[in-house]
Every structure is written in structure tokens, then in C-alpha cells.
Design brief:
By secondary structure, the protein is of the alpha/beta class. Helices cover 29% and strands 29% of the residues. The strands form 3 sheets. Strands 1, 2, 3, 6, 8, 9, 10, 11, 12, 13 and 14 form an 11-stranded mixed β-sheet that branches. The chain has a two-stranded antiparallel sheet with strand order 4-5. A two-stranded antiparallel sheet has the order 7-15. The longest helix is centred in the last third of the chain and has 19 residues.
């Protein structure tokens, strides 16, 4: 069975100021998700599942099913969770781990999880497909931090630590900035801590096996208990991955990619992203129309 591409496309884009996953950045108005779907199918993935907000389905259905006739299906990330006949409702999406849990019935075998608004590059999908097709354990495709920063503000990135080729831990570093002196983030005391340019970070490109759904099914109840005491928290994937590693459920192979990451955290990042994508078309990496 060919692995599936699973795309997290239900985010609200609060810092960006809109649904950046639907913002046309390519020379012909391509959205970043167009490139990811193209690259995944080219690498050998069999089908695509998009996790979306319900109002997004008509425009994406027209784009992928009617116009391009691609093997794409949809899963809605609902604001409601029903557990033991009790319905819990949140004012905003519950988080990336909940989005993944919503897709449990749409995934049959191994799959690659990505963000809709991150451009990962063709070789990243090739590396992920090679691993998922040949191995029984998950993988994390990671980038050097220098390739993932914004010139227009700070970013949050998950720094990964590796032991014998496997993911040991990932730590969320917040408010990372690049200056003439280097790359820094503030610690809990507000003091600047330096990060080497070679620091590897996760951009939420995970190759998973279906075992993660069994873990999520049990872990979700524990999260809801915490959420009832603090409704501001979100059910996020990095914390779930860390818990699975600690419990010995997963050994995650870490694979570094040499591809350029392209993304838009802020509106001001848009022009640079458009230039980067146009350059790839000019170089012949992508045809005029995907």
C-alpha cells in the first residue's frame, strides 16, 4: 500500500492575518499546498487527505477534484469533541494533535503529515517516501534552523536532539530572531541564548504509522481533563510525540533534508516567498502549471 499525504490545512493564520494556506504565491497563483501535493504524488504517495475547516471544502474541491482530478479527500477539524456521550466545544481549533485524531478513519497505512502553508521541497518528500515505504518506524524530516527564519519578526521552532539517529527530544524555542551577531531566543529569564546555524528543527513534517491513532485515542481524554482546568491550552503534536517517545511507543528516525524551506509567518514574508517560488519555476524545477 502506498503511503498517504496528510495535510494540516485548518489553521487560522492569526499572525499572518488570514488563511495563508489559500494565498496564491506561485507565478500562476499556485498556493503552497499545490506544490506539496505535486511533490508528494511525484515521489510515490498514493493519495492525499486534507484536514480543513468546512467552509474551505467547496473551493478546494473545485481546485483539486474538478479541475485537476487528483486523489484528494477531506476531513473536517470540528470544534466539538464527543467523549463518553459528553460534548466538549472550543472557540478555536483544538490543536495539531486533535487535527490528526480527526483523520483516524481516513488513514489506512503509513502516512506523511505536513503543514499546508510550509514549502518543504521535492527531495524532502522523496526522503520521506523512501523511509515510509521501506521501514516500520516513523521519521521526522528536519531542516537547519538558518533556512527557516523570517526577516520580518520572530518565529517559534522545535529544536530536535538526536541519539543514534533517532529523535531523543524536541524543545519548542520561542521568539527566535536572527541578527548580525547570530541566532538567538530568550530563555525563561529573558536572557538571550545563542543557537548554532546548524541547529536542526522540525517544521512539522512527520512520517507516521497508524500506531499513533491508538495512542491519541487514549491520550485525548487526559488532555480534555487538563483543558477543563485551562481552556487556553491546545492539543499539540510535539507534546504527543515526546510522550510517545518517553513511553517507548515510537523510535523516530531523524532525516535531515538539504531543501530550501519556504514559508510565510508574516504578511511581509510574502514577497520573498513569491520570488523564491518564481526562481524554482525559472530553473525548471516546476513547469509553468503544476
Amino acid at each position: 500500500m502506498k503511503p498517504t499525504l496528510l495535510v494540516l490545512a485548518a489553521g487560522l493564520g492569526s499572525r499572518y492575518g488570514g488563511l495563508k494556506q489559500l494565498d496564491g504565491l506561485g507565478p500562476q497563483g499556485q498556493i503552497i499546498m499545490d506544490y506539496s501535493i505535486h511533490d508528494a504524488l511525484k515521489a510515490g504517495f498514493g493519495n492525499v487527505v486534507l484536514i480543513v475547516q468546512e467552509p474551505m471544502i467547496p473551493v478546494l474541491s473545485e481546485r483539486y477534484l474538478v479541475q485537476q482530478q487528483l486523489p484528494v479527500s477531506f476531513v473536517i477539524q470540528d470544534r466539538k469533541i464527543e467523549r463518553n456521550n459528553i460534548v466538549y466545544e472550543n472557540a478555536k481549533p483544538w490543536g495539531t494533535a486533535h487535527a490528526l485524531w480527526c483523520a483516524k478513519k481516513a488513514i489506512q497505512g503509513n502516512f506523511l503529515l505536513i503543514n499546508a502553508d510550509d514549502f518543504y521541497g521535492q527531495n524532502s518528500f522523496v526522503l520521506a517516501h523512501q523511509h515510509l515505504a521501506q521501514n516500520v518506524n516513523p521519521c521526522a524530516i528536519v531542516f537547519p534552523i538558518l533556512k527557516t527564519l523570517s526577516e520580518n519578526g520572530t518565529v517559534n521552532r522545535a529544536e530536535v536532539s538526536i541519539e543514534n539517529g533517532f529523535l531523543k527530544d524536541s524543545i519548542e524555542r520561542e521568539k527566535i530572531s536572527k541578527t548580525n551577531e547570530g541566532i538567538f531566543y530568550p530563555d525563561s529569564k529573558g536572557e538571550s541564548v545563542s543557537l548554532p546555524e546548524s541547529t536542526l528543527v522540525s517544521m512539522n513534517m512527520w512520517g507516521f504509522t497508524p500506531a499513533i491513532f491508538d495512542f491519541l485515542e487514549k491520550d485525548l481524554d487526559a488532555f480534555i481533563q487538563k483543558w477543563q482546568n485551562n481552556p487556553a491550552i491546545e492539543y499539540q503534536l510535539p507534546q504527543v510525540v515526546a510522550a510517545m517517545i518517553e513511553a517507548g511507543v515510537y523510535q523516530i528516525s531523524v532525516i535531515s533534508t538539504n531543501e530550501e524551506w519556504i514559508g510565510v509567518t508574516y504578511q511581509e514574508d510574502k514577497q520573498k516567498a513569491m520570488k523564491q517560488l518564481k526562481k524554482l519555476h525559472d530553473l525548471g524545477v516546476y513547469s509553468e502549471k503544476l
